[in-house]
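JOB MANIFEST
job_type = single_chain_structure
chain_count = 1
residues = 533
[input]
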Amino acid sequence: MRTGLIRFTQTLTAVGLAVAAASAAAQPAPADRDADTIRVVVSFKPGTRLAHDARALMATLGGQVKVELPAQDAVAIVLPQRALARLRQHAAVAGVEEDARRYPITVMPGHLPAAADRDEVPTPKRENTPYGIKKVQARLVPASTNAPLKVCIIDSGLDREHPDMIGNEMTGEYDRGTGNWYDVDDPHGTHVTGTIAALKNGVGVVGVNAAHEVSLHVVKVFTNGGWTYSSTLADAANKCKAAGAKVINMSLGGALSSQAEERAFNDLEQAGILSIAAAGNGAMTAYEYPASYNSVMSVAAVDQNNNRTWFSQYNDQVEIAAPGMGVLSDVPRGTGRDTRLRQGSTPYTAWSVIGSPTTDKAVTAALFDLGDGKVINPAAAGKHCLIKSALAGVAKQVKICEDSGGVGAIVYNRFSGGFIGGLGKLVTTIPSVTLSDTDGAALLAVVGQNATVSIKVNDYDAFDGTSMATPHVVGVAAKVWRHFPQCTNKQIRNALNQSALDLDAPGRDVSTGFGLVQARAAYDRLLAQGCGA
């Protein structure tokens, strides 16, 4: 199972690193901001009667209201930068801050160990239990007769017609900017939701709550290739509260904190809601928000061997960990890619190039060394082109292979590790995949021998990221809390932490917090000790 979609957040680069700040800089300028205007969040002094005067001033200054946050006495506006000083001086204004950006937090490509591919790929006749579901003990918690617990997912929407979702109780919000919650053009939200609640129905995958144990409320804040603002996130979280949600999943984040956003999550905590967010994928100690607010649980990612993943953020706000490497889950129907590369009896970890055509059946052909893929070579006709990656991207190299008569392009990384590439606007007829430098060297050693490439459409895919770890924790929290509805959000949070499987340094550490979340251990702790303090 391979991902065929590139994330705009932390994308795996040619050298194998991904940092949120770099991805943020790559985003197009929002429609509500130009060189002369700025989007800010204005907080008013609680209870002041002058707030309406401040709003009148904002209008006079040319401000345009974007988001209302009445629960936090705040509003997000776009106004001329020259007007900021006058607005800050108003007697009713408690503060003015930049409206920070928030991104889905996913590293691409996602991958499964090659040896596990055959067992991991769902088919219409076989249902798969992803490794993470087993690791968090989801199947070991007994059934409950209590009402399903409501989970709110703030993300890119949900494919509600996905076979693994049909049968769940699902509601959501309409937003004039992002559309209906069930209109999806990005796989992120569906993937996250599948880990929480994919049903055990004989097909696809199963989630942590696979037996109608949760009800879902979806707030869509992202569209394909997009991002959102901290004020929009705070507004979405308030909508989760209004919908009756007890747990909020936020597989998203950003580098800048926001006082208004923090107040929103503090308010939600006081209202009895458990907010859980991704720690970040920058592979560094910097804080990501909202995960690093004290009122939010920060989730790190571990791999199949319980080691912190290379990309997972590590700092003193990390509270708990969950599987986040090669996480198999649902994606909008028809957007998944089952990509395979085999030479002889050896399977290789490969990723479909973005925009590559799929294959009706596997393509078997001899391997041909096309070098850097810069020059057409008729000797490649009828063969798989083995090409060293170029800094300029893979599109031209795939085109050279096709023009040479090649039947498939296999582009290996010139740097260490795996990578993913895209064709952009180029349309080709041959399948194209990427793989690591190590695997490329192994194939170079057997040039002339046959290799088999296939890229098939699927409704499932494997992603990497703390985004993928977060719904494991959310799913466990909901599963356990349903058994003990008398417990508070803080008590459930404490139970998850105190029952986690300790990893790395003894006790809480910066890499994995209290450890790997464990559903059965948390259930047993609450059953034996009660809700506690």
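[summary]
The first strand starts at residue 10 and ends at 11.
Residues 1-31, 112-120 have pLDDT under 50 and may be disordered.
exit_status = 0
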